[in-house]
Amino acid sequence: MSDKTLATFKIETEQWKAFQAKAGNASGILKEFITAYLEDRISIQPDGSIDTLAGLDEKIEAVLDRVMTGRLNEVTDQLGKLSACLGS
């Protein structure tokens, strides 16, 4: 059996009901929030606000790298074909 803890906290009743109604799976969302926070996918700012853009620079860089590599490969292939045509 896995080692789990029942976590409790106080929240206004109406706020909790609204969260449950919107979330559907309130405990699942809270667990995902904790996981994302621990993995630095989100961070808490000094003013207490949540920064959901944490790590966005790295994600954008990875996507751009993948796209640019693909485009570079396409251009290289086209240049090879063009070079072969000009050489014959």
What is the rounded distance between the termini? 71 Å
**How many strands?**
2
Which structural class fits the helix and strand makeup? mainly alpha
The largest sheet is: 2 strands, antiparallel
**Helix and strand element order:** HHEEH
List the strand order in the largest sheet: 1-2
Enumerate how many helices there are, as a single number.
3
Q: Low-confidence spans: pLDDT under 50, at least 5 residues?
A: none
What is the overall silhouette?
elongated
Range of strand content = under 5%
Question: Which helices and strands, and how do they pair?
Answer:
Elements: H1 13-23, H2 26-38, E1 43-44, E2 50-51, H3 56-87
Antiparallel strand pairs: 1-2
Word description of this protein:
The chain has two domains: 47 residues, no CATH class; 34 residues. The longest helix is centred in the C-terminal third of the chain and has 32 residues. A hairpin with a 5-residue loop joins β1 and β2. The chain contains three helices and two strands. By secondary structure, the chain is mainly α. The chain starts with 12 loop residues before the first helix and ends with a helix.
